[in-house]
Amino acid sequence: MRDDLKQAHVQSAIAKASRRILPLIGLGYLFSFMDRVNIGFAALEMNSDLGFSATVFGFGAGIFFLSFALFEIPSSMLMSRFGARRWLARIMITWGFCATATMFVQTPLQFYTVRFLLGVAEAGYFPVVIYYLAFWFPKSARGRTISYFYLFGPLASVVLGSVSGAMLSMDGIHDLHGWQWLLMLQGLPAVFIGLFIWRFLPDEPAYAEWLTTEERAGLQSILERESAAIVPPARQGIIATMRDPVVIQLALIGALLVGTGITLSVNFPLVLQATTKLNAYEIGFVVSVSGVLAILAMVVAGRISDQSGSRFAPAIACALGSSAGIVLVAMHLSTHITVAAWLLLSCCGWSQALLFAAMWPDLLHPGRLALGGATIGMVSQIGAFAGPYGWGLAKDAPGSFTPALWGLAISTLVTASLFTLLMRNTRVSRRAQPLPIERADAAAPDLGQQPDPA
Questions:
Q1: Is residue 350 classed as helix, strand or coil in its secondary structure?
Q2: CA distance 50 to 286
Q3: For residue 145, which of 23, 10, 317, 243 has the smallest C-alpha distance?
Q4: Which domains does the chain have, with CATH numbers?
């Protein structure tokens, strides 16, 4: 009876945390993703208006991820000093202003500079979020939790595809180009989300006034037990973290996975335009549908990984599915097949990314998670920089997207191989501690007054 009561408290705590925290952080991720890749929709008009070549655009799109990578570790270290709530709010407010400032660029140098500053502003967001969620949700609920957070990424594709065509059609209003309206209207909301995070996001469970004493104790107990099951690092510090074999393998996977995903997200509107002759509204519809399907796929992938106790098998399957989708796009068989391949690629790519992120707290000790996550994020963003720039070079040389697509297909096959290698090498790949947690909404949350910030 006592154990049942304790589990009920844990269930209630997780349900409350899911409802209070995930929507706000998720909205931050939605605008984070939109402000990274909406440049792909802006390019439908911006490149011709400003005379940017594919190489100029690819370098500008990719340099964001270079600065993002360079400042990933410093940002995570500063988070430890200022706290998650304050630091996430700072990230969102500054990146909102930088994203909006992109509307004023006129030359390649200005484009590169603003994109670089946007990367500096946004650096650290994702590792800080994963670190933060690891101190709220136990392993047996983590796959679903991160899937609920991660689904805001494909939801961003739905929003982006739904509104971007209309925003581009605002060309000429108040003497602004359509792409300028798009960048402004999709950049400024991040500032307001940042202010809400500052006001309402608790730093940790101990400061969440909407949890009862029993809920806090039950949640902290299971989190401490899971933390103790992970072998602590023998040495701490940046150098020791960068030499950790698990961190190295996760970082290599991240570089390939994120590089491929960002390259496709930024350039796929242009691929559809060139290979299918769809207009901006039709391309937006395809992107929106792919986002909806990706949301469903991610929820399923998160639940499967929680129930099986392993992230690896579904991640490998998703990597192989992504490679198949890219190959079909590269073959240019027909408009219908190209669109269907993009839908497959979107579902597999987002699910693969979700499972990859869920591996971080599963495999890394809490004492290494902050710097380890920042290191993984840093290397991942180097891949995100190299991908779009390499894509531009590969496209400009032969004048076709095909060689670049084949290169990305090979990249996803290598990713699947690295997942397999990590599965064999890691010492922490066991099933989560049993906890009969149903859907996050199984326990009715406290819908009372939001707490004051800690």
A1: helix
A2: 27
A3: 23
A4: 2-425 (1.20.1250.20)
